[in-house]
Amino acid sequence: MVLSAEDNLPRGNVWKITAKNTDFYLDFEGIHGGVFHLSAHGPNNRFDGHRFHVKRDRKAVQEARDHGYFVGDQLGRGHKFDGAQLAEDAFLIARLRWNWDLQRPRFRDAALTATPIPELSAGRHGSMLNTQLQPNSAWDVDLVVSYGGPFWPDAKSSARDNSRLGPLVNSSGMWLTATSYHRPLATYPTPEDLRLPVPRREETPQSILIAGPGPGGAKDIYWFVEGITTRALLTTSDPA
Q1: Mean pLDDT within 100-126
Q2: What whole-number distance in Å separates Cα of residue 40 and Cα of residue 23?
Q3: Per the confidence metrics, is the pTM higher than 0.85?
Q4: What separation in angstroms does the CA of 39 have from each of 19, 42, 50?
C-alpha cells in the first residue's frame, strides 16, 4: 500500500501485509523496513487465542541509523495490545494514516521516498492512492482481524465505495481485512502524542513516520502516522 499523487511516485513508506503460517505481519519495504513489525498471531500449538504486538529489531535499527535514517523508539521489549473489539470474533488492531501534507507541492521533495514501488508477482497484490486528499484530512487504512470469515466494518459503504483491501487468511483460520477511508482530521484527530508540528516557511521539511498506541494504551489500537515535520526537530531528538 502506498500514497502517491499525480506523478505516481510514492510518498512516505511503502507498506506491506504478509500472511505466514498462523500469523499476519505488517511492516514496510526498503533499507529501513526491518526496524520494527506489527504481528497478529493466531492460535497454534503453543497457545490458544491470539496475540497482537509490535517489536523492533535492534540490529536493523542500527543499520538504518548507519544509512542516515533517524530512528527513535521507546518500545523496549515491545508493546503488547488488545485492539478494539468490534464484534464477538473481530478486532480492529491498527490504523495506517497518511496526512494530506505528504501531497502538498511545497513538501514534495521531502515526501518522496527512495524506496521504489515493488513489482507485483504471483500471490502479491498492491494498492496505490493518487487521488488528491482534501486539506486537513488523511487517508486511513484500518486493519481488522477476525475468526470464521472476513469482517468488514461499515460493510455496506465499503462494498459500495470499493474501499476494501484483502481479505487475507492464515492457517489458524484467522482473517485480516483492510478498509480505506478519507477522514477529516477535525472529526477524526490523530492521538495527541503522535502529532508533530508542520514546518513553517523558513524551516526545512522532513517526512516522518510516528507510531504508538491510541489513548487507551494496551487496550487500544496501534497507530502508524505518516506526515511531514521540521528537520530541526529530528536533529534535536536524534538518539545517536
Answers
A1: 89
A2: 6
A3: yes
A4: 10, 10, 10
